[in-house]
Amino acid sequence: MDVLNSALYGFQISLQPINLLYCLIGVILGTLTGVLPGLGPSGTIAILLPITFHAPAVSSVIMLAGIFYGAQYGGSITSILVSIPGEPSSIVTCIDGHQMARHGRAGPALGISAFGSFIAGTIGVIGLMLVASPLATMALKFGPPEYFSLMILGLIILIYLTQKSLIKAISMGAFGLILSFFGMDIVSAQPRFAFGVDELLDGVGIVPIAMGLFGVAETLVNLEQTEEVKLFETQIKGLLPSRKDWADSFWPLIRGTVIGFFLGILPGGGAILASFVSYAVEKKVTKHPEKFGKGAIEGVAGPESANNAASSTGFIPLLTLGIPANVVLAMLFAGLLIHNITPGPLLLKEHPDVFWGVITSMYTGNILLLLLNLPLIGMWVQITKLPYRLLFPLIILFCVVGVYSIKNTVFDVWIMLIFGAIGYFMKKCDYEPAPLTLAYVLGPMLEQSLRQSLIMSNGTASIFLVRPISLIALVVAAFLLVTAFTGFAKQKRLQVVEGEDPLGQGMGPPGSE
Amino acid sequence: MKRWMNRISTLFLFGFSVFILSLSLRLKVGSFKNPGAGFAPFLASLLLLSLSGVILVKDLLGVSERDQKVPFVTWKNLIKPINLMLALIGYGLLFTVLGYVVATFLLMLAMFIIYQPKRWGPHVITAFIIVGVSFLIFDVWLRVPLPKGIFDFSSFIRSWW
Amino acid sequence: MKTRQTILLIACAILLGLNVSMAAEPNYPTKPVELSVGVEPGGGIDLSARMIAERIKPHLGQEMVVVNKPGAGGRVALTFLSKAKPDGYSLTSVGDPAIVLIPHLEKVMYDPIDDFTSVIQYGSFNIGYSVLADSPFQSIKDLIAFARANPEKLTVCSMAVDSPGSIGFQAMALHEGVKVKIVPFSGSGPAISAVLGGHVTVAGTSLSSQMPHIKAKKFRLLAVMGDERDPAYPETPTLKELGYPIVLESWYYIYGPKNMEKPVVKKLEEAFRKVIDSPEFTKFAQERLFWVKRPVAGEDLRTALVRRHKEHGELLKKLGMIK
Predict the structure, then answer these.
(1) Quick check: helix, strand or coil at residue C225?
(2) Counting CB atoms within 10 angstroms of each CB, which of A49, A208, B86, B154 has the fewest?
(3) Are β-strands C202-203 and C155-157 bridged in parallel, bridged antiparallel, or unpaired?
(4) 3-state secondary structure string, A329-348?
(5) Could you tell me which residues are beta bridge partners of residue C290?
(6) Between the CA atoms of A467, A471, A472 and A477, what dihedral angle is there, to the nearest 10 degrees?
(7) Mean pLDDT on C73-100
(8) Half-sphere exposure of residue A2, counting CA atoms within 13 Å on the CB side?
(9) Are A140 and C193 a contacting pair at CB < 8 A?
(10) Which of A138-147, B85-94, C17-26 has the lowest mean pLDDT?
(11) Domain limits of chain B?
């Protein structure tokens, strides 16, 4: 098979000691940047790019690529341990991952996350080898209307992330959308909602918001307890996933990989969208939806696989079309250019060594990451043993430095504090942070594709329904929306009969305090 | 307490959406043919407005939230969170003035004391250690830019190397 | 007690003293310099900036880190720059559009010349108009004919709504009395994807960004918008030849906030010049299709920009795009 030959050729390159070394450096750095919020992959790569100047082309790209998908591994660690997402694609992992940690199951959570990432990443690379070109062509079919409908679908899926009130979740989504519109309008360069504050011209910022809502708010709530805060069950129940965990996670892993694989090709969407689509899917197909939110391992296995698969296929637009999907890949692009290699339609023909070398290195990279991360699980789990009086100051410190290091402005720290306060109120009143954060991430793309589509269609909204991909996405979204409401309604009716009220909209005794 | 908190939250959202709605009208909503800068915010704030409105109405009509199985907070519970918030606000104000090292030391100290008001001694030592180590990691090793304030430890240490 | 306090006081004094002595900045630069770029990652402009940033380290002694601040044809990045500290650590790679073109058409939040220090000019990007290789349009004339028969149906995109590519096409349309639609994108990368996917018909981006696709026979280049034919595509006519008096070049410059110190500017200028004049950079530029003539810098650059600003204003008036 032609692909097999190419793969062997690629391995000849990527298994050379120097390339293995660069790969190792890359994935270690990637994991670090994933763990530390604010110190994102782009900042790291920026600092490293000069090194690539002196290194051979393939090696540099291998290293930079390693940083990219390595970050997906690291991001889940803090999500699980302290419910602070290291990467936006790990936000969803906070939900069930952290709950698992609280029940003493941090080890299995980290383990399944690492294994899932490995399996998904590997399958992703294999898929990449086999179908890169056709996938790229497929990705091109997504124009503004398709993106818009996909974003709408993504927003509707937010509903499935909620544990509590539906209407409150949607309002959080709307709130997140509005926040994403703060800043300079990309089309007209008008400042929006900046109130004359220069720092707001760049928008509010996902990291301050996430750190505030997840880190600071959580700490504030935990401090309410008058006795010693015991965040984690002291009994650590095993360091690795059990047989049952594997059995439960098998299908979520597969589904997550498929979801991530396809969503990763879309420039700009990728890992984040994939992670929470996967979560929603798992919640919908499981036989025990009530487990979700309390430490369901499916809620970790699925999303973590999805974001890793997505990071593998995220390379496709770059390698085949020469269009980097995000800043990190753009730096990779720059790295290649420095060595006079132009990624694009001709990369395969002109520099097959780079193409296949990089792709096969992703396979070795994933193995290295697994070997790196597994032994560290024991170390990470020890963190759960720290007394809270030591842990929470460290968390706060971590958040502050992470937030400050992005733009070196105290303003971001203030934003974090404001959202810490907002997040506190949200937690007390059953408004959830995940829908807000995810809507915030999707907002800009949603708005841009909406405006582009309307211009393209001269103002007729039918453009979204006339084009097949867009139509499918919207139909699925509508379907999900309807089933969400009827599903909830049914649950509500059932539970009212039993005396409980999961929706918070029901009829408990009035005046309860 | 809970009803009060809920009302405030919903009112906040409601007020916020009204505010954004009016701002987006001023930003030129444009038309379907030519959506302006205010187009999307207008729609989103409209959505938030209606939803928070619904929640408000339900609350006012006495259809209350579900019973909390755990007792809600009393003022006693709020001491530590409020103190933390105050400490953080102070930190924000002093961060650039005093620089990372000093301000963080004070913050760490404050956080330890908030949690365990009894023993100051060990707290000072732990705070010192944490700040020192974190400084070495973040500033010296990782080169993360941290504010220097009036005490420039960073150049001080570097000049020694 | 007293001795302890005295010791503490002395320690503080020493620390403060050391701090004061460290306060002066003797050698610029002592930390990495930020170079912001007003487009999304991946276009020719983004890459040329990254290339320069890469190569400048030995000449400057510190790294130059590229940060993307996309939006509105570079206006977003420029607005940020106008508020930055003139300490030499914030620079922007900015092009003609945000300086000499857009300010005539729309209100901008800065004075394009006076709010900034012009450091050096580093290259120009010719704009090309392409369609998909399998599209029925063989020439600009075909596009105009289509637009005439189907008003507001022809979609054109460029790296920004107000880029020379967009404005050039609009000027052409105005000249011919037809109506077209400019679809906003922020960056040539997304714009080219849209054309490749068939969502938009015409790409009016830099030749640099279109080159790989023209080479791979996915794009058909219909015209270039320059004073003369582009040396890389000698068979492709210019808009001027086709009868449209529209020449909007796209020169790129390094800008800093206003009131930067002269020695800092001088040092930067020298470092940039070394990079731009180097044979590797010239080769890179040639391969990526952006042209480097003898770079103008400093006061000369400022004068040149003032002149260009005026000329573009007159061109736009002539084209009827402004009063």
Answers:
(1) strand
(2) B86
(3) parallel
(4) HHHHHHHHHHCCCCCCCCHH
(5) C125
(6) 150
(7) 82
(8) 3
(9) yes
(10) C17-26
(11) 2-61, 75-160
pLDDT digits (tens, 9 = 90+) for A354-387: 888 888 888 888 888 888 888 888 777 777 777 7
CB contact under 8 A, C18 and B152: yes
Max Cα-Cα span within chain A: 74
Residue A459 contacts C, CB cutoff 8 Å: no
Residues A323-360: pLDDT tens digits?
Answer: 777 767 777 777 777 677 777 777 777 788 888 888 88
- Give the C-alpha separation, A311 to A274, whole Å: 10
Q: What is the pTM of this model?
A: 0.81
CA-CA distance, C24 to C19, in Å (whole number)? 10
Nearest to C38 by CA among C268, C250, C194: C250
Instruction: Output the DSSP codes for C165-215.
Output: HHHHHHHHHHHHT---EEEP-SSHHHHHHHHHTTSSSEE--BHHHHHHHHH
**What token pair was written down for C131?**
């369609």
Tell me the C-alpha to C-alpha distance, in Å, between residue B8 and each of A35, A505, B85. 36, 18, 19
Q: Test B150 with C19 for CB contact under 8 angstroms.
A: yes
Distance CA A449, CA B54 (A): 30
Whether the predicted pLDDT of A419 surpasses 90: yes
Backbone angles phi, psi at A463, to 5 degrees: -55, -30
Q: Is B52 on the interface with A (CB under 8 A)?
A: yes
Q: Which of B97, B101, B155 to mutate to test the interface with C (most CBs of C within 10 A)?
A: B155
- Residue A53 tokens, joined: 């100047």
Chain C nearest-CA distance from A410, in A, is 15
Residue A436's region, left for phi above 0, alpha for psi from -120 to 50, else beta, is alpha
Which tokens sit at A279?
Answer: 């979560």
% of chain A residues with pLDDT over 70: 84
Token couple for A150: 């996909």
What gap in Å lies between CA A168 and CA B9, rounded to an integer? 11
Q: Is C34 helix (H, G, I), strand (E, B) or coil?
A: strand
Å from C41 to nearest chain A CA?
Answer: 5
**Span A226-269, pLDDT tens digits:** 666 666 666 666 677 788 888 888 888 999 999 888 888 776 66
Identify whether the C-beta of residue A401 lies closer than 8 Å to the C-beta of residue A413.
no
Q: In this complex, which chains have at least 3 CB pairs below 8 Å with chain A?
A: B, C
pLDDT (mean) for C191-203? 88
Instruction: State residue A162's pLDDT score.
Output: 72
Least confident of A110-124, C42-56, C240-254, C264-278: C42-56
Contact at 8 Å (CB) between A186 and C186?
Answer: yes
A166-180 vs B2-26: helix crossing angle, rounded to 10: 40
**Helix, strand and coil percent figures for chain A, each rounded to 5:** 75, 0, 25
Say whether A504 and B65 touch across the interface (CB within 8 A). Answer: yes
405-424 of A, contacting B, C-beta below 8 A: 405, 408, 410, 413-414, 417, 420-421, 424
Residue with tokens 């928008």: A203
Phi/psi region, residue C198 (left: phi>0; alpha: psi -120 to 50; beta: rest), is left
| B134–A420 C-beta distance less than 8 A | no
* Residue type, position B156, single letter: F
Q: Of the candidates A193, A220, A508, which has its C-beta nearest B81's C-beta? A: A220
CA distance B155 to B140: 10
What is the residue whose two structure tokens read 């009530």? Answer: A290
Q: Which residue has the higher pLDDT, A378 or A453?
A: A453
Quote the distance between the C-alpha of residue C249 and its chain's center: 11
Placement of tokens 């670090």 in the chain: A32
* Backbone angles phi and psi of C310, in degrees to 5: -65, -45
List helix spans (H) across chain C: 2-23, 44-55, 57-60, 75-82, 96, 102-105, 140-149, 164-176, 188-196, 207-215, 262-277, 279-288, 298-318
